[in-house]
Amino acid sequence: MPTSKSAGTRKSPQQDRSEAMVGRIIDAGSRVLLTYGYAGASTNRIAAEAGVSPGSLYYYFSDKDGVVRGVLDRFLVLLGQALSNTTARLEWADRAVFLETADSMMDVLEENRRLLEILVDEAPQLVRSGSRLAIEERLREHMRTAFLLLGTPLRGAELDAACWLATQLCLSVPVRYILSRPPISRETVLNGLADQIGALAGHGGQGTGR
Amino acid sequence: MPTSKSAGTRKSPQQDRSEAMVGRIIDAGSRVLLTYGYAGASTNRIAAEAGVSPGSLYYYFSDKDGVVRGVLDRFLVLLGQALSNTTARLEWADRAVFLETADSMMDVLEENRRLLEILVDEAPQLVRSGSRLAIEERLREHMRTAFLLLGTPLRGAELDAACWLATQLCLSVPVRYILSRPPISRETVLNGLADQIGALAGHGGQGTGR
Amino acid sequence: MPTSKSAGTRKSPQQDRSEAMVGRIIDAGSRVLLTYGYAGASTNRIAAEAGVSPGSLYYYFSDKDGVVRGVLDRFLVLLGQALSNTTARLEWADRAVFLETADSMMDVLEENRRLLEILVDEAPQLVRSGSRLAIEERLREHMRTAFLLLGTPLRGAELDAACWLATQLCLSVPVRYILSRPPISRETVLNGLADQIGALAGHGGQGTGR
Amino acid sequence: MPTSKSAGTRKSPQQDRSEAMVGRIIDAGSRVLLTYGYAGASTNRIAAEAGVSPGSLYYYFSDKDGVVRGVLDRFLVLLGQALSNTTARLEWADRAVFLETADSMMDVLEENRRLLEILVDEAPQLVRSGSRLAIEERLREHMRTAFLLLGTPLRGAELDAACWLATQLCLSVPVRYILSRPPISRETVLNGLADQIGALAGHGGQGTGR
DNA sequence: CATGAATGAGCTTTCATTCAT
DNA sequence: CATGAATGAAAGCTCATTCAT
Q1: CA distances from B37 to B6, B48, B121 (A)
Q2: Which residue from C157, C189, C200 is facing D165, i.e. has the nearest CB?
Q3: A177 vs B13, more confident
Q4: Residue C42 CA to F10 C1' — how many Å?
C-alpha cells in the first residue's frame, strides 16, 4: 500500500512517474509558499515552478489547497518521525527521553521555521486538517501511556482532561516558541514543559515530572 | 484617554458622525465575516452591508484588513475587560480570583465562538496584530505580579520563561478548548490551568498553585 | 421608470453614463457574436471590443449570458416594433394587414439573419428567455382577437389550441424560412401562413383565412 | 446496407468489439448528457462513464460533438422508425394513418423528452446535422406523395412551398408541444395539424384534410 | 465627506485533445 | 487497439482599490 496521501490528492500514484510528479509539485509548492506566502501561491505559479502544466497540477490535486495540504502533510510526516524515533512510547515516562523527543521536534520546527510560519499564520484552516488531527491523536496516546507509567492517580474524565491539556501544551508551546522567538533558552522551555506535564500527571510524579 | 483605535483606522474619530461610520462599518464587517467567512468578506460586500459606499469605507479604513482588524480589536477589547474586571492584578495570586477571571474570559470566547473561529482559522496573520500583542503583554505582567506575590523562587531569565510559558498557556488553552470542544468540563480545564500556573511558579506554590 | 432590462442586467442604469455603458457593451456583444459565434464570444473579448474592462462588464451584467440576453432583447424589441407598427391588433383580421405585418417581421429577421442564426443555433436556451416568451404571449393575444373578429366558431380549449398552434406557426415558420432559405418565394410562404391561420380559425373564415 | 453511422464516427464498425465500443460510448454519452447537460458533458466524463479511456473515445469519434451527434442520430433513428412503421408512405393520405403516425412520433419525443430538451436547447447547432436533414427530406417526400394522392391542385413551386410548410409544421409543432407542454390535449394538436396539412393540400382535400 | 462607476491584473479551474507506452 | 498521463490555451469571474464628480 503506497503512502496514502490525505484528501486533496486525486490519484493515488500508480506509476513511478505519477509519484514523481506529485513530489515535484509538492516541492514546488513548498518553494512558492516560502517565496510568495499563501496568498501569493497561485496554482499557475506552483505549476510553473514545478515545470508542469496547470492541467497536470489539477490532475494530481483536487484544488489549490490540495497542494498546500500536500506540503503540510509532508511536514507533518517529519514531525511524526521525530515522535517515533524514540524507541517506543512507553519510554516517554523517562524525562530524558521526553526531553530528547521534544528537542528533536523543536529541531524539525526550527528547520522549517518560515514554512511553519506561513502555514500556521496564513493557512491555518488547513493546519486543522486530518493529518494534523492524526498527530494530535497520536501524541495524546503517548501522553496517556506515559501518565499511567508515571503512576498518575488520575482516572476517567480527569485523566482525559489531563492528557488533552498536556497535548495542547506540547503542540502549542513549541510552535509558539519557535515562531515568536522569546528571549528564553530552548532548554528552559523544554524543562518547563516537562515540569508541567509532570504536574499534570499528579504531584507524586517522578520521571518526566521530576 | 480617548478610545484609541489601533492601526487600520485612518482618523481618530473626532466627530460623532465619524465614530458612527466606523462603528457601522465594523458592525457590518462582523456580520459579513460571520456570514461569508474571511475569504467571502469583500470590501464591497462590507460596504453594502454597512449601507455605505466603498469609497467611504476606504476613507475610514486603510484597506480591507483594516476593517478586519477593527473587528478583531473590538473583540479583544471585550477580552481585555474580562481581564480587568477583577479589581486589581495583584489579586490574581488568589486562586479563586484567577478562576473567576479565566471563567469570564471563556465566557467571552464562547459568546463569540464563530467569530473567533473565523478570525483564528481564516485570518490569522491578523491575530498577531498590535492589539493582540498588547493583550499578551498585559497578561504577562499580571503573571509576573502574581508569581512574585506567590513567593516564587524564580528570578531573572527563569522567571521570564515561566511567565512566558504561563501566558501562552492562558492564551492557547482556552481558545483551543472553545474551538475544539473536547469532551472535558470547563471547570476541569480551568483547574488544570490553575494547577499548571501554580506549578510554574514553583513547587512551594500556594494560592493559584494549590 | 427606465426601460427595464430582463434578468441579467445588474444595475438599472441610473445615470446617463451607465446607460451608455450598457449600450456599448451590448453593441460590442452583437459584433463579437457575429464575428466569433456564441462559443467564441468570451467576456474578455466583448469587454475589449467595447473598450471597457472586464470588471465593468460584470458591473452591468450578471454574467456572460446576461450580455447575450441583452443582445437578444434588443433584437426582440425590433421584432416587437414590427408587430406594433400596424395600428392596432384588431386589424389583424384583415388579411392585407396580416400580410404586411408578417412581411415586416420577415424584414427584421432578414436584416439580422446572421445574428438570428447564431442566437437560435448556438444559444437557444437563451432564446426561451423571458422577453421571448413575452413576445409569444403578445402574439397569442393578437391571434385570439383576430380569430374572434373572424367569427371563429371555436371556443374554450379549442380556441386556445388554435391560438397556440397559430402562434407557433407564426414564430417558427418565418424563422425557419429565413434561416434555411428554401427555394420558395417569401410571398408564397406568407400566403400559405395566412391560409393556415384562416384554416385554424375555422372553415367559415373570411379575412385572413381567405 | 450496413447501419451507416453519420459523420462523427471514424470507422464503420467492422468488428463486434468496435460496434460494442461505439454503443457503450453513445450510451454513456446519453447518460452524461441527461445528468450534466451539454455544457457539463465533457469527453473525459463520457469516457469515464463508458468505462473507457479518453484515448479510446477519440479513436471511435472524431471529437466531442461526434459523440453527441451519435446520441442524436440514435434518437433520430427512433423517430424515423415511427415514420416507417406505417406500411407505406402512400397511406399517409389517409387521415387515420397520419394521426397514428404523428401520434407515435409524439410518443418517441415524449419518451425522450429530457434528452430532446437538452439536444434542442443546449446543442442545437447539431440538430442541423445530416441525419436531421435526412429526416426532414424524407418527411417532405411523404408529404409530396400524400398531397398528390389527395388530389392537390398545386403544382411546381406552389407544391414545393406547401410541402416545405407542411414539413416544418410536422417537425416544429410536435417538438414545441412536447417541450413547452401547453395546456392543450395532444389529440387537439394532432387534429389541428392534420387540418392544417389538409388545408395546405388545397380545399378540395379529403383524407388528411378532412 | 460621500459617492459609485470603473478598473484590470490575476485567479482558479476546465477540458478537448494528443501521444508515448 | 487501448491506455491515461500530460497538456496549455483560455474562460469566466472577482475584488481591492481609486478618483472624478
Answers
A1: 22, 16, 10
A2: C189
A3: A177
A4: 9
Q: Which of residues 48-87 of B touch strand E (CB under 7 A)?
A: 52-56, 58-59
3-state SS string for B126-159: HCCCHHHHHHHHHHHHHHHHHHHHCCCCCCHHHH
End-to-end Cα, chain A, rounded Å: 43
Name the amino acid, one letter, at C118. I
Beta carbons of B158 and A196 less than 8 Å apart: no
Residues linked to residue B9 through DSSP beta bridges, in sequence order? B61
- B58 is written with which cell numbers? 476606504
Q: Give A50-81 pLDDT, tens digit per residue.
A: 999 999 999 999 999 999 999 999 999 998 88
What is the number of alpha carbons within 13 Å of residue D131 lying toward its C-beta? 22
Separation CA C25–CA C74 (nearest Å): 12
> How far is the CA of A26 from the CAs of C40, C187, D58, in angstroms?
35, 70, 32
Q: Is D105 left (phi over 0), alpha (psi -120 to 50) or beta?
A: alpha
End-to-end CA distance of chain C: 43
Question: What's the pTM?
Answer: 0.83
Which chain C residues in 16-75 sit with Cβ < 7 A of strand E? 17-18, 21, 44, 52-56, 58-60
CB-CB contact of A9 with A66 (8 Å)? yes
pLDDT, tens digit (0-9, with 9 covering 90-100), for C105-129: 999 999 999 999 999 888 878 877 7
Q: Per-residue pLDDT averaged across A127-136, rounded?
A: 81
Taking the C-alpha atoms of residue B144 and residue C197, their distance in angstroms, rounded to an integer, is: 97
Question: Is residue C34 scored above 70 in pLDDT?
Answer: yes
CA B166 to C1' E2 (Å) is 49
Cα gap B84→B13, rounded to integer Å: 25
Residue tagged 420558395 (cell numbers)? C184
Helix (H) or strand (E) holding D160: helix D156-180
Listed in sequence order, the residues at least 6 apart from A142 whose beta carbon sits closer than 8 Å to its beta carbon are: A83, A89, A92
